[in-house]
Protein 1
Amino acid sequence: PIQKPIKHYLQFSDLTLDEYEYVIERARIIKRKFKNYEIYHPMIDRTLVMVFDKNSTRTRLSFEAGMHQLGGAAIYLNTRDSQLGRGEPVEDAGQVMSRMCDIIMVRTFGQDIIERFAANSRVPVINGLTNEHHPCQVFADIFTYIEHRGSITGKTVAWVGDANNMLYSWLQAAEVFGFHVNVSTPHGYEMDMSLVSTDRFTLFANPADACEGAHLVNTDVWTSMGYEEENAARLKAFDGWIVDSAKMARAAPDALFMHCLPAHRGEEVSADVIDGPQSVVWDEAENRLHIQKALIEYLLLGRI
Ligand code: CP
Ligand code: NVA
């Protein structure tokens, strides 16, 4: 039976540690089934609708392939050729879409948009990235960390770069999982403290200092989707914020490097780091598939 009341996944803090531990265990099992070519079809006759207001490679592919692998169907809609692009209210879209499908993923601009959509939806809504949050990516990243190094609780994660959706989701994850984030953002691109509800972080003026002793070094594009007109100014302001081998040398000897991708070698990360032995970027990308399949299963079927 489908879970009632419905549960959305709009930001990382929407699930408890206990729920994360359950879904991660399911992701392990679902991943193993996939690797073994074992058919697992709990979503027969169920449909996922994916609404994209921004570009995507990984998010679209992982949700679409994932729903297919679970025995269901996935439908891709974008702003350009749906009525959303011609001004149909997001509230109306939530009402209509949720009467025709079982679960919805939305990638859009402001978090308020996905919240208004979800408030009008009869089915679970998953955040596939907003300006403020990217919870599915950080969920996959935590799963990736655990696979490589075991528990992340008590560890130190360095964030070197823009105060963006990824950082805000990492900070929420720090509160849920109990780890610390060393944050270094360039002058003028600091965190919006109204989006931060944890004290599990330390600010560093020097990005290399933020990496000192870190178990995981994390960065992301300097210009996120929707901020393209700031690109030239950002390139100047972020000078010195590249994650290179000198910064990785400050981290713990067995530190991992993560980047949610897409990456820009020579800007936020050097080629030798992202293509080097500490980098787990391909595992992060792959784990989007397994984590989101487990998340869909959990949001629709609960604990099975
Ligand atoms: N990391 C991530 O969400 O990638 P896409 O923008 O390609 O979906
Ligand atoms: N911070 C980036 C992540 C891309 C997956 C963006 O929002 O564009």
Protein 2
Amino acid sequence: TLPTPVDNQTAFDLDRAHVFHSWSAQGALAPLVIAGGSGTVLWDYEGNRYLDFASQLVNVNIGHSHPAVVAAIAEQAKVLATIAPSNAVLPRGEAAARIIERAPEGFHKVFFTNGGADANENAIRMARLYTGRDKVLSTYRSYHGNTGSAIVSTGDWRRVPNEYARGHVHFFGPYLYRSEFWATTPEEEGARALHHLRRVIESEGPASIAAILLESVPGTAGVMIPPPGYLAGVRALADEFGIVLILDEVMAGFGRTGRWFAFEGYDVVPDLITFAKGVNSGYVPIGGVIISDPIAAHFDERVFPGGLTYSGHPLAAASIVATLDTMAAEGIVEHAAMIGTDVLGPALAQLGADHPLVGEVRGEGVFWVLELVADPATREPVSAEMMARIKKELLARGILPFTMDNRIHVVPPCTVSPDEVATAVAAMDEVLTLVERA
Ligand code: PLP
């Protein structure tokens, strides 16, 4: 029999002996041991507690172990724990209906996947079949998942060792703090980024481009809030050239920005919406594509050549129903918006004002980033060693951060309380002071 972990070491040793980890050389890993969680709080087997200001991989929007969602999964498990996607089952239909309720006019169908990567994979497949074209345009500063086309759509380094899929072209999106366009205002950045995209479309040949795939708010790449008019301008370019616009709402959707969908804040309606993460906070893996009517109708008489054994898994579907109903009943999306404007935004702005290390503070809702620089004038990113030290010091103070490159992503659950924000920000203040002195 396997030992039951009663201390951290047992769990740690089993992991290191047998678990092969993501995105890592396996040799020197030291995973944090977690035993349980509730709301924003996680704990280990030895009584250490952490405030989860990462929401794990920015997916636990409703907080850990919400009793309503846990109960819905348990109830569904008693009735029917699994079923093939070809059957009609109530939780799957109800989950799709709940999602459609929040989608814009003109969307009536949901294709369920196992997560975010295969949501993008299938959205790309739909766009290619719908347009009869091949190429997919996406930005260098993006992450879209780790399957064939999703990883090649991704802009960052993770694309390069995985370039198996064909037809992917990258361009630069707006990012005023490190502008590729010598812009000095958000308006200038947005307009020049649109000009650049137009030139890429023209140069690639519009008739070869099936889709533009964008995160509504690029998340892992640094929470870059789109400048005024940018996404609407991308929509106009897509319309002009007959290109399908896919907005990836995997990280930004379902409350993270203080809205059900991030794009609702930017005067744009896509043709396909991909989602995962916050839709059920990852209690059971699920994602999907929300399909606009013309693209859905395209497959009325033509076979859609895609599917997955666990598409619309009943436990995941039941957890979506409970999650979305609970988020609505408890005003969780509105709470996330309030936290952003009244609590977290002002507190992080104060950190930015107090600490020369903080080059820029960006975000909305519970979707924020502190971009750290060694020199505010040159904006040179802080070193990897500095980031490792900051992460270690935050963990030592009971704050679990999401760090990426030279950034601290401040991304707690949508349910985070003002007191928890105050605790986390005080710890960040202390740690920034400490490393600045050093
Ligand atoms: N798209 C975005 C914007 C993401 O942030 C992620 C994951 O971080 C994905 C897609 C991939 O989702 P998954 O890891 O569920 O496949």
